[in-house]
Task: structure prediction
Amino acid sequence: MFPSFIFVGLAISIASGGQTLNTCNLAPKGSPYFPRNFSFGVATSAYQVEGGWNSDGKGPSIWDDFTHNNPHLIDDSSNGDISADSYHRFDQDLAALKELKVDHYRFSISWPRIFPNGDISSRNQKGIDYYNDVIDKLLLNGIEPMATMFHYDLPSEIQKIGGFANALIIEKFVIYATELFEQFGDRVKLWMTFNEPLIYCKSSFADARYPPQVDLSGVADYICVDNTIKAHAAAYQVYRSQFYDRQKGKIGIALDSYFYFPMPNETESVYRALQFNMGFLAHPIFHKSGDYPDIMLKEIESNSLREGRLTSRLPPLKGYWKNIVRHSADFFALNYYSSRYLRRAEKPKGMNPSWERDMDCDEIVDPSWMQAVGSWLHCVPEGLEGMLKFIRDEYDNIEVIITENGWSDKGTLEDDNRIQYIKSHLQAVLNAINDGSNISGYTYWSLIDNFEWKSGYSVKFGLYAVDLMSPKRERSPKKSAYYYKEVIKSRKIPNHINEFS
Ligand code: BGC
Result:
């Protein structure tokens, strides 16, 4: 893991009331250059940027319903009806991508644009045409398309039968994924099935923050993860058996987690928390065991029996599923944003039952860490380096593509803190490469400012601002766009941030 003197030093600073540490800055190790074939990109997702919520036959998603029915639950009462209007203005996104000269663009496909009611019987040619146009224009400009199949915007009709809490989602998703391979797989060679399952399973089925707002923690969130991982593996099987020979693409699943640094004498707790977070989905897919982490299975089974249940709230994967889940990804798609200190919980956590109660750890923030807008995001580049090392050690140095990493503010064009965040996190990537990690790409979240879920438009992650007051939604580069452009051009990390304005 991370050198222990760093843990101890930082942890002591917390324990002793917080002396300021110069984080958000990482010393270089080894070569200053990224490998020649390293791929730099940016990301967006359909509901967050596209708008056109009911254009050309698109059906409603659970986010359309949620924002329309509950504007008071979104910080600025907004929704994604128009957003950056990428559905009608993709050419403006393309102009920004060309200006940056990115190697790849990660976008997501809106399931209800392809199948408005979630089912193949409702196939919508105009929705298919839109993504054909996006993919063709990217390729024409030498930009590799990287497509996510599901980024939270589930067709409403699938939710009516329970969504991810119903195992029928597996079949529904496989039919949808098959359609995407058929329509786009001749040109899309990098796929991600799901984005951040743990986030949407917890937020949708445990703490009721996201639609469908089901409040059944420690039960429905685990069912959601279980169904997601099976749907992922089943789609992977279809690709390998029916499409791979002629399409030769790669499939991943975008997983996220904080990295954790131990408070004094808490190294074991860190391992436990990493398994409950990253390991929950990564272990079954990337580890030879083909099952959820042992520590989770044991803990949740014994908690379940203590609660008087007859079976575990998280049963192990068995037989067929175990076999197809194991090694069901060709690369590790990592979304990394931030880190926490960790210790075993001093008193019971969260609801009973819940993932928090099962994990049983306290997450702690060092007050000296640079903070973004939004209480959860602090700049801790050491965490990215630590996470990359964890993946290297735990999953046999599998190829990693960093599919999200980003910084939020209120929208200034002079975004020096974003530049500092990017600079220090790219240094973490380079250090990990120089240490032997097999990392082939980095993707900044996000290309443009967009609808940030419950925060609406009050929080901005983009390299480009979007004028939400103008019907044309003009994009304007921030200082960070020039900085990132220079990174891509020079294939190294520019030292001086002030020249980029
Ligand atoms: C999600 C994005 C989101 C970003 C910033 C990621 O977890 O994939 O949709 O905008 O974090 O919060």
In short: Residues 45, 48, 195-196, 199, 256, 335, 404, 445, 452, 461 surround beta-D-glucopyranose (CB under 6 Å). The first strand starts at residue 39 and ends at 43. The chain has a mean pLDDT of 95. Residues 220-247 form the longest helix (28 residues).
